[in-house]
Amino acid sequence: MIQARRGFWTAVLLVVAAVLLVVALMLTGCPGRSDSDAMAKVNGYKITRAEVDKSYQRQIAGSPQKPSGEQEQLLRLQLLSQIINRQLYLQKAEKLGIVATDEEIESRVNQLKAPYTTDEFRKRLKDMGFTEDEYKQELRRNLTMDKLRNKEILSKVAISDNDIQSYYTDHKSQFNVIEPQYHLAQIVVSTQPFATGPTNSAQTEAQARERIKVIHNRLESGEDFADVAAKTSEDSDTARSGGELGWIPESQLKTNIDPATRDAVAKLKTGQYTDAIPILNPAQKIVGFRIVKLLGKEPAGQRTIDDPNVQQQIRAQLRSQREQFLLAAYDENLRNNADVRNYFVEQILKNASAQK
To answer: Could you tell me if 45 and 67 lie in one domain?
Structure first.
């Protein structure tokens, strides 16, 4: 009887041990199978293959030719690196209690929606691989990262009058302008597919022509050019700066800008803007429209430090340099203080070694 009871309890203990072993394996992962769907880890946060795949599909949306072979792997590697950096920022923002508010998200979405009907806006998001909720999540992440950068770095960058004076003294020849300069800004509407922002997606020439007409009417009604450019221009490189193209030498205006735009700009006085100008590709097909504004024009000659435009140019250049330098250091410091494991990189190098 005693022997039977011992056998019974032994069996129970074996079952319990087996259950505990299974639980432990579930928690820690089986050898050789742990995190099989993870491409990287950031302080314990798992970046899954599905997350990278979704980012990849959004990146190539609208592209006429898909990457293949090593090009695809390189793009996935770059996207994974971006996601790792993003996660580092979001984790830091969470520690500091920094987050984009619902009001900020809705305000930004309303700005982006402004030029479109509800159906048009949803279609554009769909073309980029987003639902509206997913895009709001993306906006929240990006705005949160912007707020973190501003709090930790950008708000602390200051350029003094002495900095400006020193730069001017060391680079005086840079401000000896040998030809007239044109300060231009633009608003662009494209007929071509892009993957750079929520307003960039394929549309017909007729739709683009109608959109640029609506934008021109907004300018005619007195709306600020920079504000309209920031909200509607489909040139992502200039939209964020109110459409500014910077100062362009007269020779470049003659050689690097299409004749229609050049002729239209030549007729402008400071503060005026052109009508809608067709943008042509080398085959002379219309691929978009632009409206160009002349913000200022400067004659040739030596600019002095008393010139407000010189001071503004130096201040902007020094600020940009200092911001980029500090942001690079900040990014590196985030990585130095993080536990980052990139399994995708490890697998790529392992595969390369195996092929020798």
So the answer is: yes
How far apart are alpha carbons 41 and 218 in whole angstroms? 48
If asked whether residues 147 and 190 sit together in one domain, one would say no
Structural contact between residues 164 and 305, judged by C-beta atoms closer than 8 angstroms: yes
* pLDDT above 60 for 32: no
d(CA 174, CA 234): 32
Statement to judge: residues 151 and 91 lie in one domain: yes
Instruction: Please tell me whether the overall predicted TM-score, pTM, comes out greater than 0.85 for this model.
Output: no
Tally of residues, the chain: 356
Say what the pLDDT of residue 292 is.
96
Structural domain including 63 reads 38-155+333-354
- The H or E element spanning position 149 is helix 132-152
State residue 356's pLDDT score.
Answer: 65
C-alpha distances in angstroms, 202 versus 109, 116, 120, 123, 330?
Answer: 20, 14, 11, 11, 37
In a domain, 167, yes or no: no
Which residue intervals of 171-249 are DSSP H helices? 205-220, 225-232, 236-239
Measured between alpha carbons, how far is 325 from 101 in angstroms, rounded to an integer?
29
With CA atoms as reference, report the closest residue to 274 among 287, 286, 288, 261. Answer: 261
**% of the chain beyond a pLDDT of 90:** 54
- Residue 322 burial (CB < 10 Å; 0-12/13-18/19+)? middle
CA 174 to chain centre: 31
